[in-house]
């Protein structure tokens, strides 16, 4: 069945599909939806090998999947670590599991860091994601990767 799906997807015109999805998109778009469609459009324009999405609950990654990019979406689910000064808690893997049902999403539950600042945590997670992508054969050195952080789009080159 996987072979049939792969063969069928080889005949999809992703540019045309993107245009049809954009025609039915809500206008005006929410800022998050606008970022999701923009990262897909840019990934297609630069011939990126992967779209990397850092998310807490998976919503951003699901919005990116809605626009049907031709490349895989590596969704790094960053667990939320909270405290009320007496008790620490961390959300479970439910957002990562829920992403499994969306086409093109490859969810990975990242390790959270209590001590790291937001910038340090983002940089650490990005390095881990690129290494994971190389190990799984999704990307190789020299490939372009589109990354979507909360409200930031970046183009990375794999080293």
TrEMBL record:
Listed InterPro entries: Pyr_Knase, Pyrv_Knase_C, Pyrv_Knase_C_sf
Pyruvate kinase C-terminal domain mapped to chain residues: 33-146
Pfam families: PK_C (PF02887)
UniProt superkingdom: Eukaryota
PANTHER family: PYRUVATE KINASE
Name of the molecule in the record: Pyruvate kinase C-terminal domain-containing protein
Provenance organism: Gossypium arboreum
